[in-house]
Design goal:
Elements: H1 3-6, H2 8-13, E1 20-29, H3 33-44, E2 50-53, H4 60-69, E3 75-79, H5 115-121, H6 124-139, E4 147-150, H7 159-172, E5 175-176, H8 181-189, E6 200-201, H9 210-219, E7 224-230, H10 237-242, H11 249-257, H12 260-269, E8 272-273, H13 277-289
Parallel strand pairs: 1-2, 1-7, 1-8, 2-3, 3-4, 4-5, 6-7
Helix pairs in contact: 3-11, 6-7, 9-12
Length: 291
């Protein structure tokens, strides 16, 4: 990536060309009580700067109450059409009859193993209906989200889904997470700031040595806007029961994100922690001026 490309979002947000900007977003707010408690702690005690809400999940109402109690927290909507836990599942907010291409034989969203099947059959019109339902459910509570991203789907999973999500973001005055620099290039060309590097999905990191990886990644953070999609949660019996094979990912994320080491490195390196609010403001300004 060239210097001019790497500092494009910096200029759109009013930062110097050589600034290193970082959004640490806690994905999966509302997924479980352990996630809610861990994410809240990572936001109030740690270096996490934003979160995203899984509206169809069992603990979403609790998460929305926490957001209401903490209006200073910046949050987006984690658009959810995947139910990725075998024995702990969720489905559409919209009635199943209106979104049949999104629903499996048991009446839930498809599992992550069946994402290719879902993407092959999902009707864009039905996805838009469900995405709107999730956005509207949040707005109905008077909460004010900052952005949209997707649960388990890289850039929405299909080009038309990505484009539809961007359209919804512009309509609702929100920003959009972009997972890789090439996808965001056209948006930045429209004056819309996006992540400029590949988003770090902490779920894919090795548990052993994770803190060392985080520390190294902070010290080597590139110029421009980066984002980490983190997954903090408390280590509880609930979490272990829901995710028996992967539960350790979440407490190990939390451990580093609330550590003194994380704060010290960010301060030493002069890294600017951002939420999506500054991006949202520019998206709103640009989109309102073109309508």
């Amino acid at each position: 990536m060239t210097q001019s490309q790497s500092s494009q979002t910096n200029r759109l947000l009013g930062y110097p060309d050589d600034a290193r900007l970082l959004i640490i977003n806690a994905d999966d707010f509302g997924r479980s009580h352990a996630c809610n408690a861990g994410i809240l702690r990572s936001l109030t005690e740690g270096v996490v700067s934003s979160t995203t809400l899984m509206v169809p999940c069992p603990w979403a109402l609790h998460a929305m109450q926490l957001l209401s109690d903490h209006p200073e927290i910046s949050f987006g909507i984690h658009l959810t059409v995947i139910s990725d836990v075998p024995l702990y599942r969720w489905g559409s907010l919209t009635s199943r009859e209106k979104v049949p291409s999104l629903i499996d034989e048991a009446g839930f969203f498809y599992s992550d193993e069946r994402i290719p099947e879902l993407l092959a059959q999902a009707k864009l019109s039905e996805l838009e209906v469900e995405f709107r339902a999730q956005i509207e459910a949040v707005l109905a509570t008077s909460l004010k989200p900052t952005h949209l991203d997707w649960h388990c789907l890289f850039n929405g999973g299909r080009a038309d889904i990505f484009e539809m999500t961007v359209k919804l973001a512009k309509e609702y005055g929100l920003a959009v997470r972009v997972f890789d620099p090439s996808t965001g290039e056209a948006l930045r060309g429209q004056g819309l700031p996006t992540d400029e590097h590949n988003v770090v999905d902490t779920f894919k990191l090795d548990i052993a040595g994770k803190s060392a990886w985080f520390a190294k990644a902070l010290r080597e953070l590139p110029i421009g806007l980066s984002e980490w999609a983190a997954h903090p949660a408390l280590d509880t019996p609930e979490l272990q029961a829901i995710e028996p094979e992967s539960w350790q990912v979440r407490p190990t994320d939390l451990d580093f994100l609330i550590s003194q080491e994380a704060r010290e490195i960010i301060e030493q390196e002069g890294i600017v922690l951002l939420s999506y609010k500054p991006l949202q403001q520019v998206w709103q300004e640009r989109c309102s001026s073109t309508t």
